[in-house]
Design brief:
- The complex is a heterodimer.
- Chain A is mainly alpha-helical.
- Chain A contains 6 helices and no strands.
- The longest helix of chain A has 26 residues.
- Classes of the chains: A mainly alpha, B mainly alpha.
């Protein structure tokens, strides 16, 4: 088992445990902190796949900006730990069973599909995840969607201000 | 590393997100689970991109095949950032009106 394999399994276990803790935590602030750990694990996966640009963007945008926004809102509301009304046990059980069935079904499909048997992922090699090729593609082939996304941001900003205002 | 391991990892993360949406009543936690699902999909897109790139490298030396998926991931992050700002504004407004973030309040919208 090579170092890359060990890193893959470590990061995967880290991500799954942290994601489970997001669900289990009663305190929303703890959930946010666990979710930040999930994002760091996913960034580690991006680095393992040599997608360096996405790894940095994931840390800056998700772990940096979005989760701080979540923390800010939670602290602004000052939600009490036991204030969250719990769903009935039956509803919770149904949710877990439904999610587990979905997972089992999809894993069975993945195991059966002939098309993806013996397909390998190129780890720690390949240059498409670096900034130079990505920037070239973004500003030549995808320049119109890139500009449109700035309009999207503007409309989101205006929408957030209007909704947030009384 | 086989692609199946990546698919199974992403499916697990996605299913955890689905379970969170189905079982929690706190609007903010539900929203965070949606972010978790988005991230699982992003990771899978990057894994598929590298799978495709590795296959294309065998025939051509300096190809950029598979770069589209990474651009898509970038745009998904952009859209997610915009979505979070609006969604959190809606949750703040909901909290201001009801003094809780219980999503069952949203049932009233149907009348």
């Amino acid at each position: 088992m090579s170092t890359v394999d060990i890193l893959f399994y470590l990061l995967s276990a880290f991500a799954i445990v942290s994601a489970t803790m997001v669900l289990i935590s009663k305190n929303p602030i703890h959930s946010v902190l666990w979710l930040i750990l999930v994002f760091f694990a996913i960034s580690g996966h991006y680095i393992l796949l040599n997608a360096q640009f996405l790894a940095i963007v994931n840390i800056i945008v998700y772990a940096g900006a979005i989760m701080v926004l979540f923390l800010f809102v939670i602290m602004l509301m000052n939600i009490k730990k036991d204030a969250e009304p719990q769903k009935q046990l039956l509803v919770k059980l149904t949710g877990v069973i439904a999610g587990g069935s979905l997972l089992t079904l999809l894993i069975a499909v993945v195991k059966q599909t002939a098309q993806i048997q013996n397909k390998q992922v190129l780890l720690k090699e390949g240059t498409i995840g670096l900034i130079h090729p990505l920037g070239k593609a973004l500003f030549s082939d995808y320049v119109i969607p890139f500009e449109i996304s700035s309009v999207l941001f503007l409309s989101a900003m205006v929408g957030a201000v209007i909704i947030g205002k009384k | 590393m086989s692609i199946q391991y990546y698919i199974i990892l992403c499916l697990t993360l996605f299913s955890i997100g689905v379970v969170g949406v189905l079982t929690r009543r706190n609007g903010i936690i539900v929203f965070m689970c949606i972010e978790l699902m988005l991230n699982a999909v992003n990771l899978l897109l990057v894994a598929f991109s590298k799978m495709y790139h590795g296959a294309a490298l065998q025939s051509a030396a300096n190809t950029t095949a598979g770069i589209d998926a990474q651009i898509f991931v970038f745009f998904i992050m952009v859209v997610a950032a915009a979505e979070v700002s609006v969604g959190l504004a809606i949750i703040v407004m909901m909290y201001r009106n009801t003094h809780s973030v219980d999503i069952n309040f949203l049932n009233r919208l149907k009348n």
